[in-house]
Design goal:
single chain; alpha+beta; Beta-Lactamase; Rossmann fold; 3 domains; 5-stranded antiparallel sheet; 5-stranded mixed sheet
């Protein structure tokens, strides 16, 4: 991708910085190394505190995840290019949003005052797949502990950036990434890199395989599982969901017995419930926060994770409190339910509850959260989780739910009947009203993409809503939908958009069973067109087996009619014809 001039662009390095932090009983948390340079705009102490979570000296190892340069997220969430001059170390990384993975290790030593030497290593990257480098971070930390030198960091930095060459990775748009994610072929979902790990200290060099996920959307906070979040908070997940949607202050609270990595995992999972499809969430996410730096409290709608239960006693600091130990979710509208969690933070938020009962805490921060649409949705999701449905399936359910809310907000949702429409609009009115005033909603609307046919007045998304929502659709409307879809879908990018919004092919396949032969034919024609697109294989693989058999029977029937009436050679053996 580079050219023979100083202004040529090349992909940003996989890792922009490597940081080392240590804890000293006299000096406290200290940033001891930064390679190739320090990160401008941040105090050394601030970075060190993010890398050394509270209570880590009581554990053998832990990890945290943090973001830097949040203000640049809107502009640079997409993995950016840099000039050749930048790639030689002159880049101003303060201009770019950074994803930071941090591994921590405690080496117990009775000769040390606190009984353990605590060291942490952080990989800071412009790419949101940095979490796949966990094995490299752990190995790098061990190597640095054995030989604390800048040379070790230089070797690690060069090994990662020279072996994981992002110039070999094809740039994909949001439609490509989503269709890729839905596929079952692991080889096409990941780009494999052999990482030649250098010989460090007495350890020989070796090769490890690194698999870069190609399907991550730019607004994702990484490849994060949401099953642990669902298992812990179950139906209360929807309170967290609504809080993030409405940009309320969300705080996940752990304690000294819960690793900081588990707290970070809960925060990142909560964010991934809505991101994608909704934008800007990583910019207000603080997977690990602490009392040393409370600047996160100034960020509207923050989603933060803390290991110090003292935060629970500060109700002015949060709108929703999520107790990771008990799976309890507390917001100001739930106190009257007299929840009695048994946890190490019980005394602290019992005090908070008393303050609210006395009117010291403002009520009404959230609309009522007992929305039947949400209750039915989360019941189905939990049922799927307990039936061991995949992470992809769980993520997709939340994306469809997000899109459903977006449709309601824009008055484009489809309903079974007038009463269902009235009920849905009524129970979501307050939530939608508050959401529309958020910066996330405004950015979401700004990013609305022009769909095929919109220039001639065809709204394929509305047709998709009807096909996927209505159990009884008027035949004229259905014929019109198929005719317009078939008319405006022309090139490959058009079909990608269609499959992206459709989700799966079952709603189209079901129309092969319609009583009206014309509707059967339209559905068949659309499926044949989709079938010719190479990226549609995953969609057909996921299609209901009965509907796939129905498609094959229809194909055979159509071919037989063609051969009989038109004398075509479609089903004849070519070798026989030649003879």
């Amino acid at each position: 991708m580079s050219k023979n001039n100083n202004n040529a662009t090349v992909p940003a390095p996989t890792v922009s910085y490597i940081l080392i932090a240590t804890f000293d009983i006299d000096k406290g948390s200290t940033l001891t190394e930064a390679y190739p340079t320090k990160i401008g705009g941040y105090e050394d102490n601030t970075l060190a505190e993010l890398m050394l979570p509270e209570g880590v000296h009581n554990r053998k190892e832990d990890w945290t995840y943090f973001f830097l340069n949040r203000k640049e997220f809107r502009r640079t969430c997409k993995p950016v290019l840099e000039t050749q001059n930048d790639s030689k170390g002159k880049a101003d990384n303060n201009k770019y949003f950074l994803n930071c993975l941090n591994a921590v290790k405690s080496v117990h030593d009775t000769n040390i005052k606190r009984g353990a030497a605590v060291t942490a290593i952080a990989f800071c990257s412009r790419y949101n797949f940095v979490n796949i480098l966990k094995p490299a971070a752990v190995l790098g930390l061990d190597a640095y502990i054995a030989n604390p030198s800048t040379k070790v960091l230089e070797q690690i930095y060069n090994a990662i950036n020279s072996n994981i060459d992002m110039s070999t990775v094809e740039e994909l748009n949001m439609f490509d990434r989503t269709l890729l994610e839905r596929g079952s072929d692991r080889k096409s979902k990941f780009k494999e890199f052999p990482l030649q790990w250098p010989k460090l200290n007495s350890l020989p060099g070796f090769t490890m395989k690194i698999h870069v996920p190609l399907y991550l959307q730019y607004d994702m906070v990484g490849n994060v599982p949401i099953t642990p979040l669902l298992r812990k908070f179950r139906e209360h997940v929807m309170i967290i969901f609504t809080g993030i949607l409405l940009e309320k202050r969300i705080m996940f609270v752990g304690n000294k017995d819960i690793p900081a990595g588990d707290v970070c995992g809960m925060v990142l999972a909560a964010c991934s419930l809505l991101s994608p499809p909704f934008p800007l969430i990583p910019a207000r996410t603080f997977p690990y926060a602490n009392l040393t730096d409370l600047s996160f409290l100034e960020v509207d709608g923050f989603i933060a994770g803390v290991t110090n239960p003292m935060f629970a006693s500060k109700p002015d600091w949060w709108d929703i409190l999520c107790d990771i130990e008990t799976g309890t979710v507390i917001d100001v509208n739930m106190y009257k339910e007299k929840q009695k969690p048994e946890s190490k933070v019980k005394k602290l938020y019992t005090k908070v509850r008393g303050s609210i009962d006395k009117g010291k805490v403002k009520k009404g921060l959230l609309p009522t959260l007992k929305i039947s649409m949400d209750s039915k949705f989360i019941a189905r999701v939990i049922s799927g989780m307990e039936a061991h449905m995949s992470e992809l399936w769980l993520h997709e359910q939340f994306r469809f739910h997000c899109n459903r809310l977006s449709d309601i907000a824009s008055s484009k949702a489809e309903y079974y009947d007038v009463n269902a429409k009235k009920f849905a609009l009524t129970e979501n009115r307050q939530r939608v009203m508050i959401w529309k005033a958020t910066s996330m909603y405004k950015e979401h609307q700004r990013r609305v993409i022009k769909t095929p046919g919109s220039d001639v007045g065809v709204d394929i998304r509305q047709h998709i809503r009807k096909l996927t929502t209505l159990s009884q659709m008027d035949e004229k409307d259905m014929l019109r939908a198929f005719d317009e879809i078939l008319r405006v879908l022309k090139g490959g990018e058009d079909f990608k958009q269609f499959l992206y919004y459709l989700g799966n092919l079952d709603s189209v396949g079901t129309c092969l069973l319609h009583d009206n032969p014309r509707i059967q034919d339209r559905a068949f024609d659309l499926l044949l067109k989709l079938e010719t697109q190479p990226f549609s294989k995953a969609s057909f693989d996921r299609m209901n087996s009965f509907l796939k058999n129905t498609l094959e029977r229809k194909r055979k029937s159509v071919n037989q009619v063609k051969n009989r009436n038109n004398g075509t050679l479609d089903d004849l053996d070519v070798d026989v014809i030649v003879e």
